[in-house]
Amino acid sequence: MLNPEVGSTIMLIRAAIPDLGPRERNVAEAIVRDPSIASRLGAAEIGAQVGTSAATVTRACQSMGFDGYPHLRTLLVRDEGAAAQAARGSNVHKHALYRLFAEASREIDAAPATVNLEAFTRAAALVADARRILLVGAGGSAAAVSAIALRFMSVGIVVDAPQDPTLQLLACRLLVPGDVVLAISDSGENSSTLSSVEAARAVGASVVAVSSFPRSALAGMVDEKLIIGASGLPWPESVLTSNILQIFLLNALVAAVGETRGVSDRAATVFDDVIRVVTGNRRPGDTETDSPSVNL
């Protein structure tokens, strides 16, 4: 029996929506729009709201991995109660800072349950076997590209991560079969990222996408898609939380790829030396020549 972590039920429903039929999808989307509907309405009443039957509501719940509507209803009521208790016990009313951190904490706790672990394993294997790894992403996802490029380098895996969208497109057109593009886009609809991915696919390269939305244009173009981060929160809170979750997921991907390839001691030593240089933190006995400082 599916037993998600407290607070993760709605994220699991959202992740399952793309695989549902039209009527079942209407049921799931109604619950996502208003999770408190479960504490007020039975299966027949929800069905009436979306123009379908109680049997379809039951089938929708089972298609999403729940035993039935009573099981889903219990989980949603549990999550609603936990959220209310957390709000009463926090400083949420004192300052927006507390509200932001409390919501982000709940999203982070619930997010791992929404990731398709089989897709994650396949994506990690694809990246680990790549001849060349190219990271692309623009707009709000550009920071994630830089952060994850550094993480790859820190375990001794050389990647390309141009920041300019034109350079990303050019690099994608120069790829060959056996290369892999890691495309990061919260919305999955960024036009420059889509152009880069299209160019990569045209020359036979593989593409792994990291996004918040399983039905985005990007998700439909790639070999593997890793979906995490669609919280349903108002913008801009949802963008911030989604980016954080995607960076966590990408760090896990780097760890999995590094384990497959084998992280070398030399990589750790080189990374440590570089950090010393750019921060100006010299070891005892180092000279100016040994460790020149760089102003950042």
Please explain how this structure is put together.
- With 296 residues, this protein is an alpha/beta fold.
- The chain has two domains: 9-113, Winged helix-like DNA-binding domain superfamily/Winged helix DNA-binding domain (Arc Repressor Mutant, subunit A), CATH 1.10.10; 115-263, Rossmann fold.
- The protein contains 13 helices and four strands.
- It has helices at residues 9-16, 22-33, 37-40, 43-50, 54-63, 69-88, 96-110, 117-128, 142-154, 165-173, 191-202, 237-261, 265-279, and strands at 133-136, 180-184, 206-211, 224-227.
- It has a four-stranded parallel sheet with strand order 1-2-3-4, sandwiched between helices.
- Helix 2 (22-33) crosses helix 5.
- The longest helix is centred in the C-terminal third of the chain and has 25 residues, at 237-261.
- The chain is globular and about 65 Å long.
- The model is unreliable at 291-296 (pLDDT under 50).
CATH fold naming of the largest domain: Rossmann fold
Strand elements, count: 4
Radius of gyration, in angstroms, nearest whole number: 22 Å
Approximate helicity band: 55-70%
Structural class: alpha/beta
Major pleated sheet: 4 strands, parallel
CATH architecture of the largest domain: 3-Layer(aba) Sandwich
Q: Which spans of ≥5 residues are poorly predicted at pLDDT below 50?
A: 291-296
End-to-end C-alpha gap: 53 Å
Could you name the CATH homologous superfamily of the largest domain? Glucose-6-phosphate isomerase like protein, domain 1
Query: Mean pLDDT, as a whole number?
Result: 84
Give the H and E element order: HHHHHHHHEHHEHEEHH
Strand order of the largest sheet: 1-2-3-4
Strand content: 5-15%
Number of domains: 2
Number of helices: 13
Overall geometry: globular
